[in-house]
Design brief:
β3 and β4 form a beta hairpin. This protein has a domain of 34 residues. 0% of the residues lie in helices and 30% in strands. It is built from no helices and four strands. Bound molecules: zinc ion (ZN).
């Protein structure tokens, strides 16, 4: 079974550390998602704030 990281959308290879994310759905059947345990996607840092203009 191929596990796809929900963070970076890349497959998690055997041996790679990952965490399971249980996602409950209203229909009852929950799905188990996987995510790299190490941050694999650069976290958006707070850059210069651009004021929103209407
Ligand atoms: Zn990932």
């Amino acid at each position: 079974m191929i596990k796809i990281c929900i963070c970076c959308d890349k497959s998690i290879r055997d041996g790679e550390a990952y965490i399971k994310v249980d996602k409950m759905s209203p229909s009852g059947a929950g799905t188990t998602l996987y995510q790299h345990s190490r941050p694999c996607k650069p976290v958006p840092t707070q850059t210069s704030q651009v004021p929103l203009r209407p």
